[in-house]
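TICKET #2291
ISSUE: user wants both folds in one file
ATTACHMENT 1:
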Amino acid sequence: MLAVWLLAVVAAAFGLRLADAVPRVALGVPRGVVRATDLAQLERQSGRRMPVPAYFPDTIQWPPAEARMHSGGSAAVWYRSRTGGGIALMVATAPPGTQEIAAAVLPASVELQREAGTLGTRPAVVSRVRDAEGALWQQVQWQTPGQIILVRYRGTLDGLLKIAGSVHD
């Protein structure tokens, strides 16, 4: 009798775990991440303004292709390339008091190179990363009084710095 009860509990736990994973797999988002329909909804959900670069290269599409919010407060906006349709620019943030942007709001990547630098007058970290498909990205991250900001660009370092430099706190 105890074995039947234990088997029923294990089966129920497995079933609940599977039911929890189905929506994430169907939507293609990691645990703790929800998609917003647009930038305005993302700002309402996060409780802060998302930084939007004032400078967009002609190669980047507007409006954003995707907006994501993590349960820990991190948020990201993804922009597509006009030419190939793939994601070419991402702007991510984390609220004050957090140490880093949740990896779940960005595609997986491996950091290849990291340098300390400045963006305007703010200290920044400039990196080169490789995504899961092998594409190289340039990224810069800095802290403002209100949030951590990361800009990742699938282009040149000069282009990245121009885009990131146009982000106003």
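ATTACHMENT 2:
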Amino acid sequence: MGQMQYVEIIIRGDLMIRQIIRKIGERLQETDIEADFSSTIVVPPWRMATKIEYPSLAVLHAEVMAKDMFRFEALLQELLEQEQCQLIALNKLEKRC
């Protein structure tokens, strides 16, 4: 069994309308990358955000097999670029018991 990497990912953009979290999940299912994630999305007040196109933020906590880490990062970069969203940070975390 391979080693699992834990990462925290911060994304900014029009995440709700573009359904970014769903698209990341769908892209992962289309590959053989061994990864899964949970997400928290912070949406600014909807009326104001749509008027001034204020972006929302998402924090993803992912578990990725070490052998798939570069492919996982590339998948995220490609999708976010296509969807005109920003990858703010991708930080490896230490697993602590």
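RESOLUTION: both attachments delivered.
EXTRA DETAIL ON ATTACHMENT 2: The first strand starts at residue 4 and ends at 13.
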